[in-house]
Automatic annotation (TrEMBL):
The keyword rRNA processing does not apply. InterPro entries: Pept_HybD-like_dom_sf, YyaC. It comes from the Bacteria. This is Spore protease YyaC. Pfam families: DUF1256 (PF06866).
Length: 199
């Protein structure tokens, strides 16, 4: 199922957060939350995920049942995605995984945030074959899809991406606040997960 809203709409945070919370509630057998923010700090258009990750790391500091992978300092991208997924599988075997990524779309959809109730297929806009990730994902349409997608990613407004990332971070902060009290018995967590949110 697809839920979408323009990031500037007043209802965007509440509406999309509620969609994520309802999806979790239908699958409540998890002990922690993992947010994987896909992207790179090399192109402004592809920095949406890492910016979200960095903001979330600050917002959820001290929340040891939420783990963040993919920040501006330590991005998760095509070259290390498989390694990151293996690490998550080993350390967070019973985690509810939310993926975040930028994407390209039709011109009139630029600025739209989408919550999609299925795994993320990263790299589709650039014709990359990467493994799927997440139980659910959030995408932000940052620019127009076309024949020169690499150039589009390079020339996307950083201010626009930062504003959209701020909204996504607020959505996920709200989701974490709602879901954490509902997580399964913490005794089921691995011994090494007593740390703060990790990158």
């Amino acid at each position: 199922m697809l839920h979408y809203c323009h990031y500037l709409e007043k209802k965007s945070v509440a509406y999309l957060a509620d969609a994520l919370i309802q999806h979790y509630t239908a699958h409540p057998d998890y002990t922690e939350i993992v947010v994987v923010c896909i992207g790179t700090n090399r192109y402004t258009g592809d920095s949406l995920g890492p910016i979200v990750g960095s903001q979330l790391l600050e917002k959820l500091k001290g929340q040891r049942r939420v783990h963040i992978y993919g920040t501006l300092e330590n991005p998760v991208h095509a070259l290390n995605l498989q390694k990151t997924l293996s690490l998550i599988s080993q350390k967070h075997g019973r985690a509810y995984v939310i993926a975040v990524d930028a994407c390209l779309g039709q011109f009139y959809k630029i600025g739209t945030l989408q919550v999609v109730e299925e795994p993320l297929q990263p790299g589709v806009s650039l014709d990359k074959q990467l493994p799927p990730i997440g139980h659910i994902h959030i995408k932000g349409i940052i620019n127009n899809y076309g024949p020169l997608n690499h150039k589009v990613l390079e020339h996307t407004s950083l201010t626009f991406v930062q504003e959209m990332a701020g909204v996504i971070a607020r959505i996920l902060e709200r989701v974490a606040q709602a879901i954490v009290p509902q997580l399964a018995d913490e005794q089921a967590l691995p011994r090494d997960s007593n740390s703060q949110a990790t990158r």
